[in-house]
Design a protein that fits this description.
5 helices
C-alpha cells in the first residue's frame, strides 16, 4: 500500500521548480487536512462513547465537526487538483484524441482557477464580515471567522495550482 502511494506521488511529481514547490505545499496542506479529519473522527468516537456509556457527550461536537470538516475539505483541494484526482465526467471526450482532451483539461483548469480565485476573494470578504459582526457558533460561541484564513489560503493555493496545470497542459498541446 505504501509503495503504491509513493509511486502515485512520484508519477504526479512535477519536474519544474514552480510545480515542485506547489506540489510540496499542496501535499503539506493535504496532510494537515488528513490529520484534522482524523482528529474530528476521533472526537466523534469519543463523543458517541461518552454519550452512550456515561451520558456525557462532547458539548457542541457537531459545531466542531462542521468547522473541522469544512477546513479539511478545502485543505485537500490543491493536492487533489495537482494529482488530477478531481471527479471528471468525460462523456463527450472519452473517445477524443489525447491532444483534444488535454486542451479541454487546460480550459477546465483555467475555468476552475478563475472560480477558485473568485471564491478566494469572496471568502476574504465573508471572513472580514464574520469578524466585524462577531459571528459565533450557537453552542460553543466559537468565532466563525477563525475557519476563514485556512479556507482562503487553500483556495488561493488552489487558484495558483489550477493556473499552473492549465499552462502545463496547454504547453503539452502546443508541443
Amino acid at each position: 500500500m505504501a509503495e503504491q502511494i509513493n509511486e502515485e506521488i512520484m508519477r504526479a511529481w512535477p519536474r519544474d521548480v514552480v510545480g515542485r514547490s506547489l506540489f510540496r505545499l499542496a501535499y503539506v496542506l493535504a496532510l494537515a487536512g488528513g490529520v484534522l479529519m482524523c482528529a474530528v473522527g476521533l472526537m466523534v468516537v469519543v463523543s458517541i462513547v461518552g454519550r452512550a456509556l456515561f451520558s456525557k457527550p462532547i458539548y457542541g461536537d457537531f459545531e466542531l465537526v462542521a468547522m473541522g470538516t469544512a477546513i479539511s475539505v478545502f485543505l485537500f483541494l490543491p493536492y487533489c487538483h495537482l494529482t488530477k484526482n478531481n471527479v471528471i465526467v468525460d462523456l463527450f471526450l472519452a473517445r477524443a484524441p489525447e491532444r483534444l482532451r488535454t486542451f479541454f483539461d487546460s480550459v477546465g483548469s483555467l475555468l476552475f482557477g478563475v472560480i477558485a480565485a473568485v471564491l478566494t476573494w469572496r471568502s476574504v470578504l465573508g471572513g472580514i464580515d464574520m469578524h466585524e459582526y462577531n459571528e459565533t457558533s450557537m453552542i460553543l460561541s466559537i468565532p466563525v471567522w477563525i475557519a476563514f484564513p485556512f479556507i482562503v489560503f487553500s483556495l488561493g493555493v488552489l487558484s495558483i495550482c489550477c493556473l499552473y496545470t492549465a499552462m502545463k497542459d496547454l504547453r503539452r498541446v502546443v508541443q
